[in-house]
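Weekly modeling sync, notes
Attendees: S.R. (lead), two postdocs, one rotation student

Agenda item 3: backlog of single-chain predictions. S.R. asked that every request posted to the team notebook include the full sequence so nobody has to chase files. The rotation student volunteered to paste the first one in as an example of the format we agreed on. Action items at the bottom.

Example entry:
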Amino acid sequence: MDTAFTTEQDEIRRTLRELLAKHCGPDDVRAATGTATGYDPALWALLSQRLGLPGLALPETYGGVGCGATELALAAEETGRVLAPSPLIATAVLAAPLITRLGTGAQRAALLPHLADGSLTATLAAAPLPTALALTGDNRTGEWAGGGRAGGVQARRDGHGWRLYGEVAQVLDGHGADLLLVAAHTGGHPRARTLLFLVRPDAPGLARVRLTALDETRPLARVELRDVTAQLLGADEDGADVPHALAATGAGAAAVLAAEAVGAADGVLARTVAYVRTREQFGRPIGSFQAVRHRLADLCVRVRAARSAAYYATWDPAAGGLALAQGLETLGAAAAEGIQLHGGLGITWEHEAHLYFKRATAAELLLGPVHRLRGHAADMAGVFA
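Predicted structure, as returned to the notebook:
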């Protein structure tokens, strides 16, 4: 196994880092989060059309680049480094793989090329997200989406189509996505099964409410469905193994999200190192003090270890949950150290260190918690059997 990056992968990282350095500074990030979409459409067009990020892992048959999970993780690490608000995770990491796995030929041909070129954004409406993706528990019980009883989203046949009724909280980019993949239950208890449905944003009875989020760089929404007309993803409701597809998507997504967390941790670490080199106390830079050096050295080791885990998980998706746990934990430690070592400046809410602190806290709330990610990985490995 060759763990070195290829020339093409190094070029992806270099090009993306240069573009983000020009167009995604802290002021740009704050400005983008205040827009209706929650991201800068001009930057998204650059990332999509110039670099092809949404289609990195999609087959060339559908207009994608034909790369793999490693390249997508590279992109996520660089966008995470500057906390770039974009629909990349929701579109390319959650929605596109599910359409590829479950969609009919016609559905893939109609949707994937537009997802690949960034002209169409999509997201997965399933909560809680870690359980739906089988990262913190078994997603085959269906309890995370109602389990065939009251709650979650229920689906019923309406002639030759389907109608959905229910609510999904905390949908990533749910307020502005051009397409929703909604996980719903049908069949009634005890024969309930989970299916995925395509819902357009203009469907009658659909309401999307953007939530006030701790991390404004990752907008969340509440999706309400009141007898909304939907299209089944796939051709056969009885033959589709949706929980397995969600779990496979979750394993790949965990590796990419781990890389994104590592990028954010590395970003706040770099900013902290630059600050302690210039901030003086007792006539010398505080970075020259041994105690500060040791803290930053320990943090550097943690970031490198988390990066290794994230990229290993792109090769072995079974390690995705553990890599995500390590990435989230490392980001939390880096953000906390960043605030402390910035001193009085770091505790001001307006300082950029707090953008990373908010990302660390909100990411674990959305994707974790860390102990459940590790606990489920231990259960799957039979550690305590």
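Discussion: group reviewed the output briefly. The beta strands are 122-125, 153-158, 161-172, 179-186, 193-199, 206-210, 220-232, 280-281, 284-285.
Action items: rotation student to repeat for the remaining queue; S.R. to check formatting next week.
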